[in-house]
Amino acid sequence: QVQLVESGGGLVQPGGSLRLSCAASGFTFSSYAMTWYRQAPGKERELVATISNSARITNYADSVKGRFTISRDNAKNTVYLQMNSLKPEDTAVYFCNAMQYWGKGTLVTVSA
Asked: How many other C-beta atoms are found inside a 10 Å radius of the C-beta of residue 4?
């Protein structure tokens, strides 16, 4: 069955960096676009970044453009989200998505 397992979250100070990973299994990873979403406390889930199956096309939410980078390694069935210059408003649970499938999320907390 399809599994998406996020990792890499944690507590970081404002201005810091984190790299999230999402390990995928149970489907042909290289055939599908992958997307990172996030959900902050009391807010709706929002799209953060998406990457095409070949990695040629990426798109970002305006709020993270220039700070976050999505990438993928099709040989490792893994998608990444490099997050730099983190702000307190980036605090959220970050989810990996493929098709209709979701991971359980990883918590990112940005606080001094």
From this structure: 21
C-alpha span between 77 and 86 (Å, rounded): 26
In this prediction, residue 66 carries a pLDDT of 98
Closest-CA residue to 8 (of 74, 88, 76, 95): 95
42 close to 65: Cβ distance less than 8 angstroms:
no
CA distances from 10 to 59, 91, 109 (A): 24, 10, 6
What pLDDT was estimated at residue 20?
98
Per-residue pLDDT averaged across 26-32, rounded? 97
Contacts of 54 (CB under 8 A, 6+ apart): none
